[in-house]
Amino acid sequence: DGGITQSPKYLFRKEGQNVTLSCEQNLNHDAMYWYRQDPGQGLRLIYYSQIVNDFQKGDIAEGYSVSREKKESFPLTVTSAQKNPTAFYLCATAPYKAMRGDTQYFGPGTRLTVL
Amino acid sequence: AQSVTQLDSQVPVFEEAPVELRCNYSSSVSVYLFWYVQYPNQGLQLLLKYLSGSTLVKGINGFEAEFNKSQTSFHLRKPSVHISDTAEYFCAVKPSSNYQLIWGAGTKLIIKP
């Protein structure tokens, strides 16, 4: 069964903690993305990766970190430096470098709440 | 700088009535255009996209959109909505010279019985 999985579905974090959100895909897609979604603001790009061992900052990378050690996996760490991390986080993939009009495919999301 | 404007944050419409969700963009280069749908607490799903060719694009669930280059618009339409169309709809633009999608703020479609 092909697709994108994100875990956990819900995550609660205490202030000052780092947490890691998982994103795994078996679509054999090259490009992977992390977005943050807040009500009424659309999607904002945090990080993206086009190939293994390479990634670039998006528009709101401060307070976040990523790694891309395997093609299938693109975990996102929300660090204590992120001042307002409560949001819905979406992982997406695209077939090939996404320079063309390739569709981005989305996972089901992780809802992070800071207590 | 490129930007995407979805003119309505919410659109209420009666079941079986037609609907249009508006999207305008600004870009100095050619673009690819997308509409995505998001059901509550879920990820996004592609409805349709325009890459080139015919400016009228048909998508899933009976939706269609028309690319108007002179008006820099890509409005989404459906002739008759159903209660299951209740969702948030996002317009996105990808400049041909860029890897990133630029997103609108979204329009919530509210279907009234």
Question: Could you describe the 3D structure shown?
Answer:
- The complex is a heterodimer of chains A (115) and B (113).
- By secondary structure, chain A is an all-beta fold.
- Chain A has strands at 4-7, 10-13, 19-25, 31-37, 43-51, 54-57, 64-66, 76-78, 87-94, 105-106, 110-114.
- The model of chain A has no long low-confidence stretch (mean pLDDT 92).
- Chain B is an all-beta fold and 113 residues long.
- The A-B interface holds A 4, 31, 40-45, 48, 50, 58, 90, 92, 97-101, 103-109, 111 and B 4, 9, 32, 34, 36, 41-46, 49, 51, 90, 94, 99-101, 103-106.
Average pLDDT of chain A works out at 92
Describe the sheet with the most strands of chain B.
6 strands, mixed
| Distance separating the two termini of chain A | 35 Å
Helix content of chain A: under 10%
List the helices and strands and how they pair.
The complex is a heterodimer of chains A (115) and B (113).
Chain A: E1 4-7, E2 10-13, E3 19-25, E4 31-37, E5 43-51, E6 54-57, E7 64-66, E8 76-78, E9 87-94, E10 105-106, E11 110-114
Parallel strand pairs in A: 2-11
Antiparallel strand pairs in A: 1-3, 3-8, 4-5, 4-9, 5-6, 7-8, 9-10, 9-11
Chain B: E1 3-5, E2 10-14, E3 19-21, E4 24-26, E5 31-38, E6 44-50, E7 56-58, E8 64-68, E9 73-78, E10 87-95, E11 102-103, E12 107-112
TL;DR?
The complex is a heterodimer of chains A (115) and B (113). With 115 residues, chain A is mostly beta strands.
